[in-house]
Amino acid sequence: MDLAGWTRRNFIAAALAGSVLVPAYGAGEATILVVGDSLSAEYGLKRGSGWVALLEARLAAEKIPARLVNASISGDTTSGGRSRLPALLTQHKPDVVVIELGGNDALRGLPLAGTEDNLSSMVRAAQKAGARVLLVGMQVPPNYGTDYSNRFAGMFEKVAKSSKSALVPFLLKGVADVDDTARWFQNDRIHPRAEAQPQMLANVWPELKKILK
Predict the structure, then answer these.
(1) Is the separation of the CB atoms in 190 and 141 below 8 Å?
(2) Largest Cα–Cα distance in the chain?
(3) Contact 78, 102 (CB under 8 A)
(4) Which residue, 31, 32, 155, 197, is most buried by CB atoms nearer than 10 A?
(5) Radius of gyration from C-alpha coordinates of the chain
(6) What is the pLDDT of residues 135-156, one digit of tens each?
(7) HEC string for the chain
(8) Closest Cα partner for 21 from 44, 39, 3, 38?
(9) What are the structural domains, with CATH classification, of the chain?
(10) Which of 2, 179, 180, 188 is catalytic?
């Protein structure tokens, strides 16, 4: 089945079921597993408008057939992702694992050492299962303090470097680090609007495309 034949209705139905799935393909075509939190789970957005959903259209435009699995859950932490990942790897056997977690750890004030350990464990598990990993980094607002903010942002680079994984330094680049941030965020000032999703995909796509090639 051609990727272009996967209709919007099918896609939205899958999203409402709790995961975004592209139908099974033939041999040689990649399975991409996204394990994230609300930033990847379309929190507060119309289904099919989040950056992971937009990725499906981008794959089609680039003529890169793939099976896309969005296993993101709003509110999830790195601990939650770590506990869920083994079953996801067994079930979907992904070629690429995109890990977008860590923001909720910071919001809950969890120790950075634990977050780093969880991310490292997830990367190792994915690599052991034969998948290539793309780690998607996050940054925290200045009110967290310069030292914490720097260590938090640097944690993703550290994990990626030590595991030789691909890295997107900041998912919200061009969204949360610009002067007119209010226009890009929902009323909670935490979750991006639909208008910000194309920029988020633009931040992820260059690194993901390298892996897929």
Answers:
(1) no
(2) 51
(3) yes
(4) 32
(5) 16
(6) 999 999 888 999 999 999 999 9
(7) CCHHHCCHHHHHHHHHCCCEECCCCCCCCEEEEEEECCCCCCCCCCCCCCHHHHHHHHHHHCCCCEEEEECCCCCCCHHHHHHHHHHHHHHHCCCEEEEECCHHHHHCCCCHHHHHHHHHHHHHHHHHCCCEEEEECCCCCHHHCHHHHHHHHHHHHHHHHHHCCEEECCCCCCCCCCCCHHHHECCCCCCECHHHHHHHHHHHHHHHHHHHC
(8) 3
(9) 3-212 (3.40.50.1110)
(10) 188
For the question of residue 147 being annotated catalytic, the response is no
Is 38 catalytic? The answer is yes
pLDDT digits (tens, 9 = 90+) for 81-92: 999 999 999 999
Residue 162 known to be catalytic: no
